Amino acid sequence: MIKSLLKFAPLSLALIAAHAGAQQPTMLDIPDVAPQPVSQATMQDVTRMLSSDEFEGRAPGSVGEKKTIALLTERFAKAGLKPGNGDSWLQPVPLVSIEAGKVSPLTVTGGTGPQSFDYGSDMVVGTYRETASIDIANSEVVFVGYGINAAEKGWNDYAGVDVKGKTVVILVNDPDYDSADMTGDFGGKAMTYYGRWTYKYEEAARQGAAAALIVHDEVPAAYGWGVVESSWTGPQFFAQSNDKGASNTQANGWIQKAAAEQLLASAGQDFATLSAAAKRKGFKAVPLGLKASVSFDNAIDTTMSNNIIGILPGAKRPDEYVLYTAHWDHLGRCKPAPDGDDICNGAVDNATGTAALVALAETFAQAGAPDRSVVFLAVTAEESGLLGSAFYGENPVYPLAKTVGGINMDAFLMAGPSRNVTVVGKGKSELEAYLDAALASVNRVATPDSMPQNGYYYRSDHFSLAKQGVPMLYVDGGTDLINGGTQAGEAAAKDYTVNRYHGPKDEYNPEWDWSGVMADLSLFYRIGRSLAMSTSWPNWVEGDEFRATRDASRSGR
User: What is the C-alpha to C-alpha distance for residues 242 and 216, in angstroms, rounded to an integer?
Assistant: First the structure.
């Protein structure tokens, strides 16, 4: 039963006033939503099937995609949804797959003598270009610090250096990632988009570099080398482009920190000293007097992958939309574990989030159609750079100006119930008033991401919609566990990251404790239902990077 009350208005006013300073807070209509059961059996069943070996790791364009489409369309229809793209459940997403083969070692000459770095153990490399082979020979090597060109911050690591046709070596993350607080040129310890590998390759291409190598350092990268190796070997998917990738560098890749230290030492440079210098505004790129060579062949295949969309039409305002997103894809086959298992099943990441779409669809349909329509969007190619969600953001089936907001679900850890939830990007939008209302009803609290330096805000599909102005929540499970507190919560997260994330051992476990996940899904239902019954249009807070885009789209509505 839903009562259209402003029961939680005082709480939401306080939250928005805190974000907006002295500005007039926004009054939001936050209807009270009665709790509804979300099916744990559905969560277990769909997660188990999606992450079974039969689905082969759910790589886009594979047999695993076909099986995923068949399963989700069947379960969406059974839940009571309608096809979300006209009379189709699918939104085709054109992709190109490029797999590097016969990769030579990365050889470096000059300095104190020749060096050779092996593919896989020392470095990984590939290309975004649709070309049969890549051969980079004797390319001058330049250390460009963090590889950032941000005019609005007065920061340009490429100033005064010509890197056209050269190989640039780049540090991961932002210059102030190890700050103690959130102050600094790049948000202090909170990563900005300038810290993401996607940006660094984009900027290197704009500067005309032939190759870009990011130095892998586990702390600022936030994951081990094994994650890089499993994610960057095998077929790599990209959005098809009119120029067939020609505007990109010839080669992009990663190099182990130890290998980078050796490379710089050969040029008479100290890695730690240069890294410290790169943190300061005014840093000048350093030509190393070295030349790099690497070559590889490419197996190229174009494929049509798919976003999978279901909709529960609204009862009163069907042309206004609330969105739930999750990515259905994973890595397919990857580097084998010691036991020979080479299927990256992606049970937690993100069979759980995909299963949540089905379970929430069932709950919404059983409760009856809300006033606004609710869209359930399972996107492809998240693991390849948020490609499916970016395609939807650029080619929306439902107008983004009339999309009220949404919730993204990516990787539910089976750590047990918690006293809190973690909000990635906390303080960015008025959607948090709806979250806080739901939390207050069950005596839980929202806490900010404890590791904003890891850049999680830019690493999942909500970001693709946020860039288009749509307010999106990204809420992870809490770390303050009922059993064991924050120590146990942090240990559980670390265990997953170290031992299973992006590896063959992210597998379904019938012994999982689902209680914490189900509590979080109950919150997600109440937030989405409240949005779907509300008359308000929550926005990004004043001054947020996405506010102007949203204001422009809504003004043209």
Answer: 31
Cross-strand partners of 106? 117
Domain count, the chain: 2
Place of tokens 């560098």: 249
HSE on the CB side for 325, CA within 13 Å? 31
How would DSSP label each residue in 298-332?
EEEEEEEEEEEEEEE--SSEEEEEEEEEEE----E
**Taking a C-beta distance cutoff of 8 angstroms, is the pair 375, 432 a contact?**
no
Instruction: Please check the confidence at residue 16 and state whether its pLDDT lies above 80.
Output: no
Domain match, 359 and 451 both:
yes
pTM attached to this predicted model:
0.79
Q: What is the pLDDT of residues 326-351, one digit of tens each?
A: 999 999 998 899 999 999 999 999 99
Q: Which residue has the tokens 């059961």?
A: 37
Residue ranges of alpha helices (H) inside 395-454 are 431-440
SS3 (DSSP) at 97:
strand
Q: Centre a 10 Å sphere on the Cβ of residue 92 and count the other Cβ atoms it contains.
A: 14
DSSP letters for 511-553 = T---HHHHHHHHHHHHHHHHHHH------BPTT-TTHHHHHHH
CA distances from 423 to 14, 115, 436, 474 (A): 17, 45, 11, 6
Same-domain check for residues 114 and 249 = yes
Q: Which of 239, 266, 300 is the last residue of a domain?
A: 300
What pLDDT does residue 81 have? Answer: 98
> Which CATH number do you get for residue 88?
3.40.630.10
Phi, psi at 153, each rounded to 5°: -105, 0
The parent domain of residue 346 ranges over: 2-94+305-555
